[in-house]
């Protein structure tokens, strides 16, 4: 069952430091771009993932083609994808042992969430950290 309780979401967003944002866009009016900029402004390191932009720089970070290519540890995978495209990305997050998989508003994949939870990941689904952070009064990440 994906996490819905405010205290659990608060803990996740308080513990996370590095986020791989899958479906990152270079277009500033797109929600994925806005959320990436917002999270960076709150002190998180956000690494963009988008095969079409791989190798480019987005908001000061190198874009990677997939989760497997992102160097170093990742605390959370934030998925801005159509629900039918999330299964392989969830599996890639499981393979990398990413501890939190976050599916954005409207991104629902119950089967993928079950696989992730069975592998030990925490899953948040149909929510947005840009909305949850102010709603829950989460302070900026300490440098």
TrEMBL record:
PANTHER family: COA-BINDING DOMAIN-CONTAINING PROTEIN (PTHR33303:SF2), CYTOPLASMIC PROTEIN-RELATED (PTHR33303)
InterPro entries (alphabetical): CoA-bd (IPR003781), NAD(P)-bd_dom_sf (IPR036291)
Lineage: Bacteria, Pseudomonadati, Pseudomonadota, Gammaproteobacteria, Pseudomonadales
Domain CoA-binding: 13-107
UniProt xrefs under Pfam families: CoA_binding_2
Source organism of the structure: Marinobacter zhanjiangensis
Superkingdom of the source species: Bacteria
Full protein name: CoA-binding domain-containing protein
Signal sequence segment: none
